[in-house]
Design goal:
The chain has about 90 residues and is mainly alpha-helical. Helices cover about 70% and strands about 0% of the residues. It has three helices and no strands. The protein has helices at about 1-20, 30-60, 80-90. Helix 2 (about 30-60) packs antiparallel against helix 3 (about 80-90).
């Protein structure tokens, strides 16, 4: 019985945003706009993190960064995996 309750609980939480999104598609709520803003920020952040990574690789290849590590550069100094963080923002 516990296993089925746990599965129902794990299914319920990911479906809640879908209910809020599809309950009345003709009149978007403020929550819809907030979710859209968070998703757009996630897309921007992921693109910026990818750009920082490519910039770091190019500068490292050219010999401009001798004693610098990736975790000291761009968004990577705030998080070890900014791509994953911003990807989670897109899907949340």
């Amino acid at each position: 019985m516990f296993q089925y309750s746990l599965q129902a609980l794990l299914i319920f939480f990911p479906i809640c945003p879908l209910y809020l999104l599809f309950r009345d598609p003709l009149t978007p709520t403020p929550l819809f706009y907030l979710g859209a803003l968070v998703s757009l920020y996630g897309i921007y952040g992921e693109a910026k993190a990818d750009h920082d990574l490519e910039k770091y690789k190019k500068m490292k290849k050219d010999g401009l960064l001798k004693d610098k590590y990736l975790c000291d550069f761009g968004d990577w100094k705030y998080s070890r995996h900014p791509n994953i963080f911003f990807e989670m923002l897109i899907w949340s």
